[in-house]
Amino acid sequence: MTRDYTHAVELLRAGELVAFPTETVYGLGADAARPAAVARIFAAKGRPADHPLIVHVAGHDAVDHWAEQVPAIAWELMEAFWPGPLTLILKKQAWVPDAVTGGQDTVGLRVPGHPVALELLRRFAAVSGEHAGIAAPSANRFGRISPTTAEHVREELGDRVPLILDGGPCTVGIESTIVDCSRGEPVVLRPGHIAPAHLEAVLGRRPLIETAVGAPRVSGSLAAHYAPQTPMRLVAPERLLDFINAQRHKGDRCGVISPNQPPQAGMPHAWRLLPADPVGYAHDLYAALRDMDHAGVDLIAVEVLPDDPAWAAVADRLRRAVAGAGQT
Ligand code: TXA
Ligand code: MG
After folding, report:
1. Ligand with an atom nearest the CA of residue 143
2. CATH of the domain spanning 2-209
3. d(CA 271, CA 328)
4. Which residues pair with 271 in a beta bridge?
5. Which ligand 1 atom is at minimum distance from the Cα of 100?
């Protein structure tokens, strides 16, 4: 784990993988223009090869190199949110490899808002062509919790990645908001830190929200994803104490993730207190799930979050984590 940009760029140029920090989660990167390099990402993650990847670029200037027919709404969103936790789906240029797009006619683009990611992208572009991009999914094994520290990446991928750039803990902590701008109307494919209200403030209208779980255009839209190895349940606050006691009766140790202090009675084996605001909660959530996997509990009880748009992105991750928990 290092800040050795020179080595990182050498590896990328040689078609190898480099893990790097972004403000959302750590990414597992490869030269997006080289299908053989991109194939290594899928192999390292154990991810189905028809899932498209996000191409990370150093700035707006690179957009026309990767995408065509870029609509005005997309430029407005870039202007407002890049560098930052927003991925735009755009019509791809004909040359863009199928390995990156999963064979679709669109490409996902993002300028990440993390100084280490930007420095890596700039240096890579300096030697590979000014519009060069790094294809990168989250640097976890398929279906598992996205890493928010360099240490998590090592835990997930071990020797499968020759270099991990260390940029400290991610500030956002959940994956970027994905907005499809390729269909005329903007459509949110994955909720994130940039909420529909933020998008509306820029666009002057509310974006559509895609809720159907169909073909995995967005792999995070598979029902089971972002999941710990320990089984997990969502439990309403008023039922939490009974739930913990029932587990204890069965001889099971229960870990709790909650924005509230533990009640005096019925203390479970592990209680992880998360911030009671959605931004702070998102920041700590994945690390908390990982901690629970290490805590040796039989079950993770996550207190149900407020039914409020501000909590939508973390609630989305929790639902998918519950669906996938205990399966790996
Ligand atoms: O915050 C993030 O977005 C992180 C960091 C590393 O940038 N990346 C990330 O990548 O979460 P990944 O692969 O775990 O999720 C990216 C999602 C995938 O679910 C993929 O299906 C979707 O973006 N995606 C990429 N290109 C797409 C396209 N052309 N059409 C629809 N969805 C696309
Ligand atoms: Mg992922």
Report:
1. 2
2. 3.90.870.10
3. 23
4. 256
5. 26
Q: Pocket of ligand 1, candidates 89, 96, 116, 218: which has the most ligand atoms within 8 Å of its Cβ, to mutate?
A: 218
Q: Which CATH number fits domain 232-324: 3.40.50.11030, 3.60.20.10, 3.40.630.190, 1.20.1560.10?
A: 3.40.50.11030
**Closest approach atom of ligand 1 to CA 56:** 7
Each domain of the chain, given as residue ranges in start order, spans 2-209, 232-324
Protein residue whose Cα sits closest to atom 20 of ligand 1: 218
Q: Which atom of ligand 1 is nearest to the CA of 175?
A: 1
The tens place of each residue's pLDDT in the chain, 328 residues long, gives: 678 999 999 999 999 999 999 999 999 999 999 999 999 999 999 988 889 999 999 999 999 999 999 999 999 999 999 999 999 999 999 999 999 999 999 999 999 999 999 999 999 999 999 999 999 999 999 999 999 999 999 999 999 999 999 999 999 999 999 999 999 899 999 999 999 999 999 999 999 998 654 444 555 556 677 889 999 999 999 999 899 889 989 999 999 999 988 876 657 778 999 999 999 999 999 999 999 999 999 999 999 999 999 999 999 999 999 998 887 5
